[in-house]
Amino acid sequence: MTRLETRLIHAGEPRLLGAVAMPIFQSSTYIFGGEKSYHDIRYLRLNNTPSHTALHAKLASLESAEAAVATASGMAAISTALLTFLAPGDHLLLQDGVYGGTHDFVTQELMGLGVTHDSIDAGDPASWEPKLRSRTRAVYVETLSNPLWRVGDLESLVAFARKHDLVSMIDNTAATPLNFRPMDHGFDVCLHSCTKYLNGHSDIVAGAVIGKASNVEKITRRLNHLGGCLDPHAAFLLHRGLKTLGVRVREQERSAIAISRSLESHPAVARVHYPGLESHPDHTRARRLLQGFGGMLSFELHGGLEAAERLIGSMKLAVDAPSFGGPESLVTRPATTSHAGMSPEVRRRQGISDSLVRFSTGLEAAEDLIEDLDQALRR
Q1: Omega of the bond prior to 147 within 30 degrees of 0, cis?
Q2: Distance CA 158, CA 1 (A)
Q3: Phi-psi bin for 235: left (phi > 0), alpha (psi -120 to 50), beta?
Q4: Which residues are catalytic?
Q5: Last residue of some domain: 242, 270, 296?
Q6: Counting Cβ atoms within 10 Å, is residue 49 exposed (0-12), middle (13-18) or buried (19+)?
Q7: For the chain, what is the domain count?
């Protein structure tokens, strides 16, 4: 059972009581079984109910990892993992241009706890070492950075982390295990907002931490104390949603490539950010590292902010909403949603203009989406 598409269906399927589909264990409390450790007691908040263990097995299998733990949200996964490996006085290397929630947590919450950081260009290995400090403990990147979809030199980053005894952490949400598996490349911790592609239906919020068993155990113990557990019904929906990840992402990717090429040739469009385009600055690296370019793209119009707002308001199929990875296409300005917590100065420094439009390609017919964008661009 080596191919991912097969593991999506069969990994983590206990077939309890003969059920082909994983049942929902809608119980917070379980009979005490003589467990010796607090973290082994069967209890919903301790992330070890049947709903959790089946899901964890599937998630670990998809990333070729030893272990996984599901969380109440993507930010619960990210924040808990960072808090596990960073203490007051420690220092973090953080990729430029990451998801706004991650940036805000590092720059506001961790800073308040005495953890400092420096930003790095993930594509420029020569610039990393000068930013090391005596208490640098971890480096954090995204496979496809949100919202410009940059691809860093991930191979060099793993080697750099090992050389300097750093925990290497990567958010693989936008790429998904279908296009990149961090454990195969030597990363220590892989993170997901399962709200997005892994569930794929815009109906739950969930996260996951995946990696070596020793790392996942440390993070799970911190998670158990912070209380960021995933409820049984959300676990069921995520477990079910994962089974169609392969067909969903490949279809979204095919449409995203067609849409990106259409936009790139449109006279109203100034620039398109999609790693599958030859014009993307990381296209060559993306082709080498990734098995696909994903369903996310962003673009800028010659008309600036006013044109961007008119376009979003004129879309008939794509919904003006944050998040991504669902069956319906979504369109938004990151400056007002995913990266609204950043100051305008920080956004500009990271290349996120107020007029940048982010597009999450859904499962509609690509031709219909292109026509919808075209009629909105004419306005």
Answers
A1: yes
A2: 28
A3: alpha
A4: 45, 99, 171, 196
A5: 242
A6: buried
A7: 2
Do 137 and 215 sit in the same domain of this protein?
yes
Lowest mean pLDDT among 29-38, 75-84, 124-133: 29-38
Specify the pLDDT at position 1.
55
Strands (E), 145-302: 167-171, 189-193, 207-211, 269-273, 296-301
Please give the Cα distance from 70 to 228 (Å, whole number).
9
DSSP codes of every residue in 74-91: HHHHHHHHHHHH--TT-E
Structure tokens belonging to residue 208: 């996951």
Cα separation, 295 vs 174, whole angstroms? 8
Residue 241: the pLDDT is 98
CB atoms within 10 A of CB 37: 8
Mark whether 230 and 270 lie in a shared domain: no
| Separation between Cα atoms, residue 181 and residue 292, nearest integer Å | 12
What is the pLDDT at residue 219? 98
Q: What percent of the chain has pLDDT over 70?
A: 100
Q: Which residues pair with 43 in a beta bridge?
A: 29
Average pLDDT across the chain, whole number: 96
* Nearest-angstrom CA–CA distance, 289 and 297: 18
Contact 335, 223 (CB under 8 A): no
- Beta strand residue intervals within the chain, DSSP E: 67-71, 91-95, 116-120, 136-142, 167-171, 189-193, 207-211, 269-273, 296-301, 319-320, 330-332, 357-360
Examine the domain organization and report whether 214 and 253 are in the same domain.
no
Instruction: Check whether residue 252 and residue 220 sit in a common domain.
Output: no
Domain shared by 70 and 132, yes or no: yes
Q: Which pLDDT score, from 0 to 100, does residue 43 have?
A: 92
Mean pLDDT of 143-152: 97
Distance CA 147, CA 298 (A): 7
Q: Which of 212, 242, 272 marks a domain boundary?
A: 242
Q: Which domain holds residue 252?
A: 246-378
Give the mean pLDDT of 36-57: 94
| pTM: predicted TM-score of the whole model, two decimal places | 0.95
